[in-house]
Amino acid sequence: MSLQQLLGEEVPAEKICSALLDYEKKKGEENKGNSEANKSNLLEDEEDTTSTVWLQLSTLKFITNNRKLIPFKIPLKHSIIPSSYEACLIVKDPQRTYKDLVSEAGMSGVVTRVIGISKLKAKWKSFEQKRQLRDQFDLFLADDRVISMLPKVLGKTFYSKTKAPIPVRISSDNADQLKKQVVSAYNATYFRASPCSSFMIRCGHTANTSQELAENIESIVRYLCEKKVVPNGGKGISSIHVKTTQSMAVPLWNNPNLEEEVTKLRASSKEVESSKRKPAEETKSTASPNKKAKTNEIKTSETKQEERTAKNDQGEGKNTSPKKKTSVEKSTQVPPQKQKALPERKENASKKNNPGKQPSKKNEPSAAPSTQPAQSSAQTTTNNGKKKAGKQKAKGKK
Protein backbone atom coordinates (compact mmCIF):
# COMPACT_ATOMS: atom_id res chain seq x y z
CA MET A 1 0.00 0.00 0.00
CA SER A 2 1.25 3.47 -0.91
CA LEU A 3 1.02 6.60 1.20
CA GLN A 4 -1.91 7.78 -0.93
CA GLN A 5 -3.88 4.61 -0.10
CA LEU A 6 -2.94 4.76 3.58
CA LEU A 7 -3.61 8.45 4.16
CA GLY A 8 -6.22 9.12 1.44
CA GLU A 9 -4.17 11.85 -0.26
CA GLU A 10 -1.08 12.12 -2.42
CA VAL A 11 1.93 12.97 -0.28
CA PRO A 12 4.89 14.75 -1.96
CA ALA A 13 7.42 12.98 0.24
CA GLU A 14 10.25 12.91 -2.34
CA LYS A 15 10.07 16.66 -3.09
CA ILE A 16 10.06 17.63 0.57
CA CYS A 17 12.96 15.26 1.34
CA SER A 18 15.04 16.72 -1.54
CA ALA A 19 14.38 20.26 -0.27
CA LEU A 20 15.43 19.21 3.25
CA LEU A 21 18.64 17.59 1.95
CA ASP A 22 19.50 20.75 -0.06
CA TYR A 23 19.06 22.87 3.07
CA GLU A 24 21.29 20.56 5.09
CA LYS A 25 23.92 20.57 2.32
CA LYS A 26 24.10 24.38 2.24
CA LYS A 27 24.24 24.60 6.01
CA GLY A 28 27.00 21.96 6.12
CA GLU A 29 29.10 23.93 3.62
CA GLU A 30 28.72 27.11 5.69
CA ASN A 31 29.75 25.31 8.86
CA LYS A 32 32.69 23.72 7.06
CA GLY A 33 33.97 27.12 5.88
CA ASN A 34 33.71 28.56 9.39
CA SER A 35 35.49 25.55 10.90
CA GLU A 36 38.37 25.78 8.36
CA ALA A 37 38.84 29.48 9.16
CA ASN A 38 38.98 28.75 12.89
CA LYS A 39 40.97 25.52 12.56
CA SER A 40 44.26 25.63 14.50
CA ASN A 41 45.48 22.02 14.16
CA LEU A 42 46.04 20.99 10.51
CA LEU A 43 46.54 17.32 11.43
CA GLU A 44 43.12 17.04 13.08
CA ASP A 45 40.69 14.56 11.49
CA GLU A 46 37.65 15.89 9.69
CA GLU A 47 34.33 15.49 11.45
CA ASP A 48 31.49 13.44 10.00
CA THR A 49 28.90 15.91 8.65
CA THR A 50 26.10 13.38 8.11
CA SER A 51 23.08 13.91 10.37
CA THR A 52 20.03 11.77 11.10
CA VAL A 53 16.69 12.36 9.40
CA TRP A 54 13.65 11.91 11.67
CA LEU A 55 10.01 11.24 10.87
CA GLN A 56 7.73 13.03 13.37
CA LEU A 57 4.13 11.82 13.79
CA SER A 58 1.26 13.27 15.80
CA THR A 59 -1.76 11.12 16.68
CA LEU A 60 -5.26 11.77 18.03
CA LYS A 61 -4.90 9.20 20.83
CA PHE A 62 -2.07 7.91 22.97
CA ILE A 63 -0.32 4.92 21.40
CA THR A 64 0.00 2.97 24.65
CA ASN A 65 -0.84 3.39 28.31
CA ASN A 66 2.53 2.11 29.58
CA ARG A 67 6.14 2.55 28.53
CA LYS A 68 7.48 -0.49 26.66
CA LEU A 69 11.02 -1.80 27.07
CA ILE A 70 11.17 -3.94 23.92
CA PRO A 71 11.07 -1.68 20.83
CA PHE A 72 9.07 -2.13 17.63
CA LYS A 73 11.33 -3.40 14.85
CA ILE A 74 10.32 -1.67 11.57
CA PRO A 75 11.97 -3.15 8.44
CA LEU A 76 13.20 -0.63 5.85
CA LYS A 77 13.99 -0.84 2.13
CA HIS A 78 17.24 1.07 2.56
CA SER A 79 19.48 0.57 5.56
CA ILE A 80 20.07 3.58 7.79
CA ILE A 81 22.85 1.88 9.79
CA PRO A 82 26.17 1.91 7.89
CA SER A 83 27.74 -1.50 7.27
CA SER A 84 31.01 -0.19 8.77
CA TYR A 85 29.43 0.01 12.22
CA GLU A 86 30.95 -2.42 14.75
CA ALA A 87 28.47 -4.30 16.92
CA CYS A 88 28.74 -5.86 20.37
CA LEU A 89 26.57 -8.90 21.08
CA ILE A 90 25.35 -9.53 24.66
CA VAL A 91 24.31 -13.16 25.10
CA LYS A 92 23.19 -15.70 27.64
CA ASP A 93 25.79 -17.85 29.38
CA PRO A 94 27.96 -19.72 28.34
CA GLN A 95 29.78 -17.04 26.35
CA ARG A 96 32.18 -19.39 24.53
CA THR A 97 29.47 -21.18 22.53
CA TYR A 98 28.16 -17.93 21.02
CA LYS A 99 31.67 -16.75 20.14
CA ASP A 100 32.20 -19.93 18.13
CA LEU A 101 28.75 -19.45 16.56
CA VAL A 102 29.65 -15.91 15.36
CA SER A 103 32.87 -17.13 13.75
CA GLU A 104 30.99 -20.05 12.16
CA ALA A 105 28.41 -17.64 10.64
CA GLY A 106 31.19 -15.45 9.19
CA MET A 107 30.03 -12.36 11.10
CA SER A 108 33.23 -11.72 13.07
CA GLY A 109 33.88 -8.58 10.99
CA VAL A 110 30.52 -7.07 12.01
CA VAL A 111 30.10 -8.50 15.55
CA THR A 112 33.52 -7.73 16.95
CA ARG A 113 32.84 -8.71 20.56
CA VAL A 114 30.59 -11.17 22.42
CA ILE A 115 29.91 -10.62 26.14
CA GLY A 116 28.05 -12.98 28.46
CA ILE A 117 25.58 -11.58 30.98
CA SER A 118 27.57 -12.82 34.01
CA LYS A 119 30.81 -11.28 32.68
CA LEU A 120 28.97 -8.02 31.99
CA LYS A 121 27.80 -7.86 35.61
CA ALA A 122 31.24 -8.71 37.01
CA LYS A 123 33.57 -6.63 34.80
CA TRP A 124 31.58 -3.42 34.08
CA LYS A 125 30.28 -2.27 37.45
CA SER A 126 31.13 1.42 37.81
CA PHE A 127 29.58 4.29 35.85
CA GLU A 128 32.90 5.10 34.16
CA GLN A 129 33.41 1.52 32.97
CA LYS A 130 29.89 1.42 31.50
CA ARG A 131 30.48 4.74 29.71
CA GLN A 132 33.72 3.43 28.19
CA LEU A 133 31.92 0.30 26.96
CA ARG A 134 29.15 2.43 25.43
CA ASP A 135 31.63 4.62 23.49
CA GLN A 136 33.65 1.62 22.31
CA PHE A 137 30.98 0.26 19.90
CA ASP A 138 28.53 1.80 17.43
CA LEU A 139 25.74 -0.72 17.93
CA PHE A 140 24.68 -3.15 20.65
CA LEU A 141 22.74 -6.35 19.98
CA ALA A 142 21.32 -8.51 22.76
CA ASP A 143 19.75 -11.93 23.05
CA ASP A 144 15.99 -11.47 23.58
CA ARG A 145 16.18 -13.86 26.57
CA VAL A 146 18.33 -11.37 28.55
CA ILE A 147 16.92 -8.07 27.22
CA SER A 148 14.75 -7.55 30.32
CA MET A 149 17.83 -7.81 32.61
CA LEU A 150 19.89 -5.15 30.82
CA PRO A 151 18.33 -1.89 32.10
CA LYS A 152 19.50 -2.73 35.65
CA VAL A 153 22.92 -3.93 34.49
CA LEU A 154 23.72 -1.20 31.94
CA GLY A 155 21.92 1.76 33.50
CA LYS A 156 20.92 5.11 32.03
CA THR A 157 24.29 5.63 30.28
CA PHE A 158 23.10 3.34 27.49
CA TYR A 159 19.41 4.14 27.35
CA SER A 160 19.79 7.94 27.35
CA LYS A 161 22.25 8.10 24.41
CA THR A 162 20.32 5.99 21.85
CA LYS A 163 22.69 3.09 22.48
CA ALA A 164 20.02 0.83 23.92
CA PRO A 165 20.59 -2.82 22.93
CA ILE A 166 18.53 -4.15 20.00
CA PRO A 167 16.84 -7.49 20.72
CA VAL A 168 17.91 -10.42 18.51
CA ARG A 169 16.46 -13.95 18.54
CA ILE A 170 19.30 -16.48 18.39
CA SER A 171 19.92 -20.08 19.39
CA SER A 172 23.14 -21.78 20.44
CA ASP A 173 23.24 -24.26 17.50
CA ASN A 174 22.01 -22.28 14.44
CA ALA A 175 24.58 -20.05 12.69
CA ASP A 176 22.27 -19.19 9.76
CA GLN A 177 19.64 -17.80 12.10
CA LEU A 178 22.27 -15.60 13.78
CA LYS A 179 23.39 -14.22 10.40
CA LYS A 180 19.81 -13.41 9.33
CA GLN A 181 19.04 -11.70 12.63
CA VAL A 182 22.15 -9.48 12.46
CA VAL A 183 21.44 -8.48 8.83
CA SER A 184 17.80 -7.67 9.64
CA ALA A 185 18.95 -5.60 12.64
CA TYR A 186 21.11 -3.48 10.32
CA ASN A 187 18.24 -3.08 7.81
CA ALA A 188 15.61 -1.84 10.27
CA THR A 189 14.70 1.11 12.45
CA TYR A 190 13.45 0.91 16.03
CA PHE A 191 10.76 2.70 17.98
CA ARG A 192 10.14 2.46 21.75
CA ALA A 193 6.50 3.23 22.49
CA SER A 194 5.49 5.40 25.44
CA PRO A 195 2.21 7.06 26.49
CA CYS A 196 2.30 10.10 24.17
CA SER A 197 0.58 11.56 21.11
CA SER A 198 3.73 12.82 19.35
CA PHE A 199 6.89 10.80 18.66
CA MET A 200 9.83 10.54 16.26
CA ILE A 201 11.28 7.60 14.34
CA ARG A 202 14.63 7.53 12.57
CA CYS A 203 14.01 7.16 8.83
CA GLY A 204 17.48 7.78 7.37
CA HIS A 205 20.42 10.15 7.23
CA THR A 206 21.62 12.95 4.98
CA ALA A 207 23.83 10.52 3.00
CA ASN A 208 20.66 8.85 1.62
CA THR A 209 18.93 10.15 -1.50
CA SER A 210 15.51 11.77 -1.47
CA GLN A 211 13.97 8.69 -3.12
CA GLU A 212 15.43 6.37 -0.47
CA LEU A 213 14.11 8.60 2.32
CA ALA A 214 10.63 8.69 0.71
CA GLU A 215 10.54 4.88 0.46
CA ASN A 216 11.65 4.51 4.08
CA ILE A 217 8.91 6.94 5.20
CA GLU A 218 6.34 4.89 3.28
CA SER A 219 7.48 1.63 4.89
CA ILE A 220 7.35 3.19 8.40
CA VAL A 221 3.81 4.59 7.94
CA ARG A 222 2.63 1.29 6.45
CA TYR A 223 4.00 -0.68 9.39
CA LEU A 224 2.39 1.63 11.97
CA CYS A 225 -1.01 1.43 10.25
CA GLU A 226 -1.01 -2.31 9.47
CA LYS A 227 0.31 -3.44 12.86
CA LYS A 228 -2.17 -1.08 14.58
CA VAL A 229 0.54 0.69 16.51
CA VAL A 230 -1.45 3.89 15.84
CA PRO A 231 -5.13 3.55 16.84
CA ASN A 232 -7.52 3.68 13.81
CA GLY A 233 -4.62 3.52 11.35
CA GLY A 234 -4.29 6.48 8.96
CA LYS A 235 -7.41 8.15 10.40
CA GLY A 236 -5.73 8.27 13.81
CA ILE A 237 -2.76 10.31 12.49
CA SER A 238 -3.21 14.07 12.69
CA SER A 239 0.05 15.20 11.03
CA ILE A 240 3.42 14.00 9.66
CA HIS A 241 6.61 16.07 9.63
CA VAL A 242 10.23 15.50 8.52
CA LYS A 243 13.26 17.04 10.19
CA THR A 244 16.95 16.64 10.90
CA THR A 245 18.72 16.97 14.23
CA GLN A 246 19.35 20.73 13.70
CA SER A 247 16.56 21.82 11.35
CA MET A 248 12.95 22.75 11.95
CA ALA A 249 10.16 20.26 11.27
CA VAL A 250 8.92 20.48 7.66
CA PRO A 251 5.21 19.53 7.27
CA LEU A 252 4.74 16.47 5.08
CA TRP A 253 1.00 15.79 5.56
CA ASN A 254 -1.86 17.20 7.65
CA ASN A 255 -5.11 15.36 8.18
CA PRO A 256 -7.82 17.20 6.13
CA ASN A 257 -10.65 15.62 8.18
CA LEU A 258 -9.12 16.54 11.53
CA GLU A 259 -12.20 18.37 12.88
CA GLU A 260 -14.54 15.50 11.99
CA GLU A 261 -12.22 12.95 13.57
CA VAL A 262 -11.93 15.05 16.73
CA THR A 263 -15.73 15.38 17.05
CA LYS A 264 -16.14 11.63 16.52
CA LEU A 265 -13.51 10.93 19.15
CA ARG A 266 -15.22 13.24 21.65
CA ALA A 267 -18.61 11.65 20.97
CA SER A 268 -17.18 8.15 21.42
CA SER A 269 -15.48 9.19 24.68
CA LYS A 270 -18.81 10.59 25.96
CA GLU A 271 -20.56 7.32 25.04
CA VAL A 272 -17.93 5.35 26.88
CA GLU A 273 -18.33 7.54 29.97
CA SER A 274 -22.13 7.24 29.87
CA SER A 275 -21.89 3.46 29.48
CA LYS A 276 -19.62 3.36 32.54
CA ARG A 277 -22.05 5.51 34.53
CA LYS A 278 -25.15 3.42 33.70
CA PRO A 279 -24.01 0.20 35.42
CA ALA A 280 -22.91 2.26 38.42
CA GLU A 281 -26.36 3.87 38.67
CA GLU A 282 -28.04 0.48 38.24
CA THR A 283 -25.97 -0.98 41.03
CA LYS A 284 -26.91 1.98 43.23
CA SER A 285 -30.62 1.55 42.42
CA THR A 286 -30.50 -2.18 43.10
CA ALA A 287 -28.55 -1.64 46.27
CA SER A 288 -30.82 1.15 47.61
CA PRO A 289 -33.89 -1.05 48.50
CA ASN A 290 -31.59 -3.53 50.17
CA LYS A 291 -30.02 -0.72 52.17
CA LYS A 292 -33.48 0.59 53.17
CA ALA A 293 -34.58 -2.87 54.28
CA LYS A 294 -31.40 -3.28 56.31
CA THR A 295 -31.88 0.11 57.98
CA ASN A 296 -35.51 -0.77 58.83
CA GLU A 297 -34.43 -4.08 60.32
CA ILE A 298 -31.79 -2.33 62.41
CA LYS A 299 -34.35 0.21 63.68
CA THR A 300 -36.90 -2.48 64.62
CA SER A 301 -34.22 -4.50 66.41
CA GLU A 302 -33.12 -1.39 68.33
CA THR A 303 -36.72 -0.57 69.38
CA LYS A 304 -37.25 -4.17 70.54
CA GLN A 305 -34.08 -4.06 72.61
CA GLU A 306 -35.18 -0.77 74.19
CA GLU A 307 -38.59 -2.25 75.07
CA ARG A 308 -36.97 -5.32 76.64
CA THR A 309 -34.60 -3.23 78.71
CA ALA A 310 -37.52 -1.03 79.92
CA LYS A 311 -39.56 -4.11 80.93
CA ASN A 312 -36.59 -5.61 82.77
CA ASP A 313 -36.07 -2.33 84.67
CA GLN A 314 -39.76 -2.23 85.69
CA GLY A 315 -39.70 -5.88 86.83
CA GLU A 316 -36.61 -5.32 88.94
CA GLY A 317 -38.28 -2.29 90.63
CA LYS A 318 -41.36 -4.38 91.65
CA ASN A 319 -39.48 -7.44 92.93
CA THR A 320 -37.06 -5.62 95.24
CA SER A 321 -38.11 -6.36 98.93
CA PRO A 322 -37.57 -3.99 101.92
CA LYS A 323 -35.33 -6.62 103.57
CA LYS A 324 -32.90 -6.37 100.68
CA LYS A 325 -33.02 -2.60 100.93
CA THR A 326 -32.28 -2.75 104.65
CA SER A 327 -29.40 -5.10 104.00
CA VAL A 328 -28.08 -2.68 101.47
CA GLU A 329 -28.47 0.14 103.91
CA LYS A 330 -26.70 -1.96 106.56
CA SER A 331 -23.83 -2.62 104.20
CA THR A 332 -23.51 1.11 103.60
CA GLN A 333 -23.41 1.88 107.36
CA VAL A 334 -19.96 2.30 108.92
CA PRO A 335 -19.12 -0.12 111.84
CA PRO A 336 -18.38 1.44 115.30
CA GLN A 337 -14.70 0.44 115.30
CA LYS A 338 -14.14 2.32 112.06
CA GLN A 339 -16.18 5.25 113.44
CA LYS A 340 -13.75 5.44 116.38
CA ALA A 341 -10.74 5.16 114.10
CA LEU A 342 -11.91 7.94 111.82
CA PRO A 343 -11.72 10.81 114.37
CA GLU A 344 -8.31 9.57 115.52
CA ARG A 345 -7.02 9.75 111.92
CA LYS A 346 -8.49 13.23 111.62
CA GLU A 347 -6.76 14.31 114.83
CA ASN A 348 -3.44 12.93 113.63
CA ALA A 349 -3.84 14.72 110.30
CA SER A 350 -4.68 17.98 112.07
CA LYS A 351 -1.60 17.57 114.31
CA LYS A 352 0.63 17.05 111.31
CA ASN A 353 -0.79 20.12 109.63
CA ASN A 354 -0.45 22.19 112.92
CA PRO A 355 3.08 21.54 114.23
CA GLY A 356 2.64 24.29 116.97
CA LYS A 357 0.52 21.96 119.13
CA GLN A 358 3.18 19.23 119.44
CA PRO A 359 3.77 19.56 123.29
CA SER A 360 0.48 17.77 123.95
CA LYS A 361 2.02 14.71 122.27
CA LYS A 362 4.82 14.64 124.85
CA ASN A 363 2.34 14.31 127.73
CA GLU A 364 0.48 11.37 126.18
CA PRO A 365 3.38 8.91 126.00
CA SER A 366 4.26 9.70 129.71
CA ALA A 367 0.84 8.37 130.81
CA ALA A 368 1.20 5.20 128.77
CA PRO A 369 4.21 3.76 130.58
CA SER A 370 2.53 4.40 133.99
CA THR A 371 -0.34 2.10 133.05
CA GLN A 372 1.90 -0.68 131.89
CA PRO A 373 3.57 -1.38 135.26
CA ALA A 374 0.17 -1.26 137.04
CA GLN A 375 -1.07 -3.95 134.77
CA SER A 376 2.01 -6.08 135.38
CA SER A 377 1.64 -5.80 139.23
CA ALA A 378 -2.01 -6.88 139.12
CA GLN A 379 -1.03 -9.89 137.08
CA THR A 380 1.68 -10.89 139.58
CA THR A 381 -0.73 -10.68 142.59
CA THR A 382 -3.27 -12.95 140.88
CA ASN A 383 -0.55 -15.47 140.08
CA ASN A 384 0.71 -15.49 143.71
CA GLY A 385 -2.84 -16.02 145.08
CA LYS A 386 -3.32 -19.00 142.79
CA LYS A 387 -0.07 -20.58 143.96
CA LYS A 388 -1.01 -20.21 147.66
CA ALA A 389 -4.45 -21.75 147.07
CA GLY A 390 -2.84 -24.66 145.36
CA LYS A 391 -0.45 -25.28 148.24
CA GLN A 392 -3.29 -25.19 150.81
CA LYS A 393 -5.26 -27.78 148.84
CA ALA A 394 -2.23 -30.05 148.73
CA LYS A 395 -1.78 -29.85 152.52
CA GLY A 396 -5.47 -30.65 153.20
CA LYS A 397 -5.20 -33.78 151.07
CA LYS A 398 -2.23 -34.98 153.06
TrEMBL record:
- Give the protein's recorded name: U3 snoRNP-associated protein Cic1/Utp30 family protein
Where along the chain is composition biased (Low complexity)? 365-384
Q: Per its UniProt entry, which superkingdom is the organism in?
A: Eukaryota
GO CC aspect terms: preribosome
InterPro entries on file: Ribosomal_uL1-like (IPR023674), Ribosomal_uL1/biogenesis (IPR028364), Ribosomal_uL1_3-a/b-sand (IPR016095)
Q: Where is the composition biased (Basic residues)?
A: 385-398
Q: What are the boundaries of the region Disordered?
A: 263-398
Composition-biased stretches, type Basic and acidic residues, lie in: 263-284, 294-316, 341-350
